[in-house]
């Protein structure tokens, strides 16, 4: 096993407020790691730093792929995506007024190989590449059982399917590292169970490393091999689900200090 | 040196007018995030109301000024109620286009009634024609009046915004409309009041310009309106002291550029400043940076 | 699948050829007289302007109020070239130089300003157009505020048609490509688009450049038709005029822009003699559309030739029904 992502001393301050401070996270190739913590602990900020939406105040993020190290900190989001990191958003950010198919096709943009000229004139390379693009999109949508809804507007999908489409769209960018921000938010237990299986399955199928932010502990404990716990922007614990369950500081962070004293 | 001093004096007069208009832009932007394109036409209407008060009704300067302010207040509130309020939840682009529409409606509606030709304000009489000479530097009574009226109105505005209940409501709504509503603040009333304040100031500016420059026409608002907006952006849009600083700054720049031989490029320089600020610090001189939450 | 595709292309071609020939015949027959030709020219130029602004504002979501600025660059470039080289070659050179020059300015202006969002961008582009206009007022080569006269006329229905169809096709093709989809994604959600690997700055600038290029063509055609130019033709109002067409047609609908350009030009031809009233009606139209139908006539939908198919289909089924009835009656007899 080799390290795929190495986050060192990652810090982000907004004015006087330090949202993330001195965070170190190391990920092995193929791992599925959970990132948990109380509301406002800085989990989504970590994702935003990882994907280039925010620029870190300090610290490094190194992605290792095929024996090559790339520094991700300070790169623009699209560059981070080109390096193989894809994400979903906590508050679903689909292209609402576009079709399911277009949502996925747009995410495949970076792998489409025809130039502007061909785009203007619809040269043979345009037709060839668009055909390939269509086939790949349908293939991907089939995995999420969305292929028969490909011409539906994204905003008209039921909530659960919107969450699925977000994952499909992230996969369409052909990532090595997938960041899922509360994928089970708002789902009922049956839907969550299904999603659990799906996440496991896509990890195998696409050979992914996954970081998962989630409040649903049943999901986290079931599928994550390791867990990092954030509180007030700092990593307060890391380990296997069993270790985390019994960790004193974690319980304090979630339930307040009084409980542990009692 | 004397020429410089004279330019500064002229710059203060022009800057006062820009500042008065800029305040309306900035307050409205602060509270509903709209560039109220129609604001510059409220100023134009103010100039016309003042004109008719002084010619047709033979009123003096001060009553004309007050009447113009009252009419503009009503106009501003009416525009808000009719055109903008139904679009409270529409996209920003839709509201902005509506604002452009209202602006054109006022300009060409006025043109339809009073024709496109310029009219000249009546000659001032009595105390208003006084001139003060300091060596070669001349200060006219009109310039003094402009400054005095502007300063009085600004102090009044600051008092309303800082010290009164409705001012507190304005500040609350511009910070967070939803939270303000939950705290029991009457949002619609507060927004209307903001339009009223801004429009009253614009009406005053209209009469002052008529008196100072003597010539008015239905499209007179367009260019000063844009420049006042530049002033608001320069100071940091949504920030009241910013608009005042910006107004005087743009007034000075304009007077100095034309005073030192660049009068043909006067307007281009102002727009150049605008683009420069937008690129370097879009939040303006006093603005704070806020990014989009993800 | 492929066959349907080709069939559509053939239909499109026939439709375009018919439009061209019919209008040409009407011009020969003098039914479209010199006065109506002005209207026709204005329609074609407005279609180019509106479709290209729609690419920037409707599809890429970047609110621009400076389209008249780009148009004026194309117009002056073409006028200056054809005044010195009054040949058809000079005209082509003028059109393309104008378009490229406009695109270049679009690039220079777009690169820094397109980082701005929404109304800030609108104001920056407005300022840019004003600066261009003031420069034209002060330059010697453009003859200042008096403008240029006696520009040779090369623009006719043929060239208008070719350039109009050309630019509209180029833009619609672009929109159907992965590059066009990237632009649309920016309109939908810039942060999501960025996170999905789209270089948002690049595509905003590309949309801006294409829009400026086409506006340059429109300006060049304008200069070469109306004989004379002055900077005040290209003021804020001209930009607003184009915006009205785009908004009326629907932000994000190419066919909407085309329909609205035709509709508005016809209305304004009727109101020609009451210029102030025309502007008042324009203004009211803007406000009323925004209040009651903010998505415009077409929303983001497109009218395609399928409309004719459907009409044709209805006709056909109607005919066959009639035929059947006729046959059955015959049978009974």
Explain what the structure shows.
The complex is a heterotrimer of chains A (262), B (294) and C (333). Chain A is of the alpha/beta class and 262 residues long. Chain A is 40% helix and 25% strand. Chain A has helices at 43-50, 77-82, 100-107, 116-121, 124-143, 159-172, 189-206, 217-223, 241-246, 248-255, 257-261, and strands spanning 3-14, 17-28, 32-36, 58-65, 68-71, 85-87, 177-181, 209-213, 226-231, 234-239. In chain A, the strands form two sheets. In chain A, strands 6-7-8-3-9-10 form a six-stranded mixed sheet, sandwiched between helices. Chain A has a four-stranded antiparallel sheet with strand order 2-1-4-5, covered by helices on one side. Chain B has 294 residues and is mainly alpha-helical. In chain B, 72% of the residues lie in helices and 4% in strands. In chain B, helix 1 packs across helix 9 (222-235), helix 2 packs antiparallel against helix 3 (61-84) and helix 5 (141-163) runs antiparallel to helix 8 (187-213). Chain B is globular. Chain B starts with a helix and ends in a 14-residue tail after the last helix. Chain C is built from 13 helices and no strands. Chain C has helices at residues 2-28, 34-59, 67-84, 88-113, 118-138, 157-175, 178-188, 190-195, 200-223, 236-249, 254-270, 275-292, 306-332. In chain C, helix 2 (34-59) packs parallel to helix 6 and helix 2 packs across helix 10. Chain C is globular and about 75 Å long. Chains in contact: A-C, B-C. The B-C interface holds B 33-35, 83, 86-87, 90-98, 100-105, 107-109, 111-112, 116, 222, 226, 229-230, 233, 264-265, 267-268, 271-272, 274-275, 278-279, 282, 292, 294 and C 57, 63, 112-113, 115-116, 118-120, 122-124, 126-128, 130-131, 134-135, 137-138, 191, 236-237, 240, 243, 247, 251, 276-277, 279-280, 282-287, 290-291, 294.
């Amino acid at each position: 096993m080799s390290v795929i992502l190495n986050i060192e001393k990652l810090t982000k301050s907004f004015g006087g407020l330090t949202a993330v401070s001195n965070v170190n996270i190391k990920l092995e190739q193929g791992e599925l790691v959970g990132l948990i913590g109380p509301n406002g602990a800085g989990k989504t900020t970590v994702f935003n730093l990882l994907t280039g939406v925010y620029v870190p105040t300090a610290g490094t993020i190194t992605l290792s792929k095929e024996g090559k190290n790339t520094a991700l900190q300070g790169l623009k989001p699209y560059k981070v995506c080109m390096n193989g990191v894809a994400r979903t958003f906590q508050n679903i950010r689909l292209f609402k007024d576009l079709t399911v198919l277009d949502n996925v096709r747009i995410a495949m943009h970076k792998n489409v190989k025809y130039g502007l000229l061909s785009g203007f004139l619809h040269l043979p390379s345009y037709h060839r590449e668009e055909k390939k693009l269509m086939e790949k999109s349908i293939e991907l949508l089939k995995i999420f059982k969305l292929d028969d809804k490909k011409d539906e507007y994204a905003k008209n999908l039921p909530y659960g399917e919107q969450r699925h489409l977000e994952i499909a769209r992230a996969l369409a960018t052909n990532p090595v590292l997938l960041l899922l921000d509360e994928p089970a938010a708002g789902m009922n237990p049956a839907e969550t169970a299904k999603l659990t299986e799906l996440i496991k399955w896509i990890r195998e199928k696409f050979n992914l490393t996954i970081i998962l932010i989630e409040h649903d502990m049943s999901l986290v404990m079931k599928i994550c091999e390791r867990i990092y716990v954030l509180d007030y922007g700092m990593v307060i614990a890391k380990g296997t689900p069993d270790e985390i369950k019994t960790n004193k500081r974690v319980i304090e962070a979630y339930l307040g200090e009084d409980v542990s004293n009692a | 040196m004397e020429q410089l001093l004279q330019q500064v004096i002229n710059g203060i007069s022009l800057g006062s007018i820009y500042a008065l208009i800029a305040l309306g832009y900035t307050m409205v932007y602060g509270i509903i995030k709209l560039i109220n394109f129609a604001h510059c036409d409220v100023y134009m209407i103010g100039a016309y109301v003042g004109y008719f008060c002084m010619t047709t009704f033979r009123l003096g300067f001060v009553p004309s000024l007050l009447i113009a302010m009252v009419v503009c207040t009503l106009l501003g509130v009416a525009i808000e109620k009719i055109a903008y309020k139904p679009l409270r939840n529409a996209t920003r682009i839709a509201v902005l286009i509506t604002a452009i529409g209202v602006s054109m409606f006022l300009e060409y509606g006025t043109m339809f009634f009073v024709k496109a030709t310029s009219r000249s304000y009546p000659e001032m009489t009595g105390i208003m024609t006084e001139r003060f000479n300091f060596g070669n530097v001349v200060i006219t009574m009109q310039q003094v009046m402009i400054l005095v009226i502007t300063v009085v109105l600004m102090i009044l505005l600051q008092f309303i915004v800082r010290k009164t209940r409705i001012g507190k409501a304005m500040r609350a709504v511009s910070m967070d409309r939803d939270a303000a509503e939950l705290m029991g603040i009457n949002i619609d009333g507060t927004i209307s009041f903001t339009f009223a304040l801004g429009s009253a100031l614009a009406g005053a500016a209209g009469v002052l310009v008529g008196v100072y420059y003597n010539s008015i026409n239905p499209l007179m608002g367009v260019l000063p309106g844009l420049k006042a907006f530049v002033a608001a952006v320069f100071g940091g849009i949504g920030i009241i002291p910013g608009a005042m600083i910006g107004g005087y700054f743009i007034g000075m720049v304009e007077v100095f550029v034309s005073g030192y031989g660049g009068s043909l490029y006067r307007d281009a320089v102002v727009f150049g400043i605008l683009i420069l600020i937008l690129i370097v610090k879009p939040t303006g001189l006093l603005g704070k940076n806020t990014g989009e939450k993800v | 699948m492929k066959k349907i595709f080709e069939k559509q292309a053939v239909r499109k071609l026939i439709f375009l050829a018919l439009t061209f020939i019919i209008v040409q015949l009407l011009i020969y027959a003098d039914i479209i007289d010199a006065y109506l030709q002005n209207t026709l020219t204005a329609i074609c130029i407005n279609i180019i302007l509106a479709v290209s602004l729609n690419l920037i504002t409707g599809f890429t979501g970047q609110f621009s109020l400076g389209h008249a600025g780009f148009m004026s660059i194309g117009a002056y470039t073409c006028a200056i070239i054809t005044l010195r080289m009054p040949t058809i070659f000079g005209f082509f050179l003028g059109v393309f130089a104008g378009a490229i020059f406009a695109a270049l300015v679009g690039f220079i202006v777009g690169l820094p300003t397109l980082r701005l969002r929404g109304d800030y961008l609108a104001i920056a582009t407005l300022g840019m157009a004003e600066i261009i206009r003031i420069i034209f007022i002060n330059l010697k080569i453009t003859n200042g505020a008096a403008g240029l006269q006696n520009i040779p006329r090369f623009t006719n229905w043929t060239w208008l048609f070719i350039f109009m169809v050309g630019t509209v096709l180029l833009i619609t093709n672009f929109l159907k490509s992965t590059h066009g989809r990237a632009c649309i994604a920016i309109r939908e959600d810039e942060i999501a688009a960025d996170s999905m690997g789209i270089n948002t700055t690049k595509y905003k600038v590309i949309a801006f450049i294409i829009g400026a290029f086409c506006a340059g063509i429109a300006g060049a055609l304008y200069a070469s038709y109306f004989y004379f130019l002055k900077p005040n033709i290209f003021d804020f109002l001209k930009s607003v005029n184009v915006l009205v067409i785009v908004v009326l047609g629907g932000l994000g609908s190419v066919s909407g822009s085309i329909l609205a350009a035709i509709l508005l030009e016809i209305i304004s031809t009727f109101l020609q003699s009451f210029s102030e009233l025309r502007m008042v009606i324009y203004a009211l139209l803007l406000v009323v559309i925004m209040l009651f139908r903010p998505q415009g006539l077409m929303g983001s939908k497109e009218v395609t030739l399928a409309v004719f198919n459907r009409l044709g289909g209805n006709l056909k089924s109607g005919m066959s029904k009639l035929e059947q009835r006729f046959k059955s009656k015959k049978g009974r007899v």
